[in-house]
Amino acid sequence: MDDKAWLERAVAAAAQNVLDGGGPFGALVVKGDELISVGVNRVTPTLDPTAHAEVVAIRDACQKLQTFKLDGCLLVASCEPCPLCLSAALWARMDRVIFAADRHDAAEAGFDDRAFYEVFTTPVEQWPVQVQHLGGPGATLPFQHWNDKADKVEY
Ligand SMILES: [Zn+2]
């Protein structure tokens, strides 16, 4: 299957998911010519604000491949990944991301993807969530332990 065919499959999963009670988003993880996983948005049915299609697909792919790294994999999304999902692809070290609809299409349907991207271009004091760096004694202790740990699994 080529990119266009994978995208059509992700879009079909997204459309079906609306009929199944989820949000209008679908995603695939593909390795080579192999479909590893399909994820659909399950935020409201599972009461999980992080259950975005891409995150669901990435979690499932990692379980199936028994790894926390998806290098060599393609993330196929029915809509442009939001900052959460794009970060998930980064953390998973995926090779490539392709998407069909974009953040503006999502905004027209009432979703915050575009707004959340815009948050990162505004000063932190103006964000809708209050974020404070308070530091404090011992704040870096976990990193000292990590750096000293001989048998750590780096990711
Ligand atoms: Zn997302």
From TrEMBL:
<dbReference type="GO" id="GO:0052717">
    <property type="term" value="F:tRNA-specific adenosine-34 deaminase activity"/>
</dbReference>
<dbReference type="InterPro" id="IPR016193">
    <property type="entry name" value="Cytidine_deaminase-like"/>
</dbReference>
<keyword id="KW-0378">Hydrolase</keyword>
<dbReference type="InterPro" id="IPR002125">
    <property type="entry name" value="CMP_dCMP_dom"/>
</dbReference>
<dbReference type="Pfam" id="PF00383">
    <property type="entry name" value="dCMP_cyt_deam_1"/>
</dbReference>
<feature type="domain" description="CMP/dCMP-type deaminase">
    <location>
        <begin position="1"/>
        <end position="114"/>
    </location>
</feature>
<protein>
    <submittedName>
        <fullName>Nucleoside deaminase</fullName>
        <ecNumber>3.5.4.33</ecNumber>
    </submittedName>
</protein>
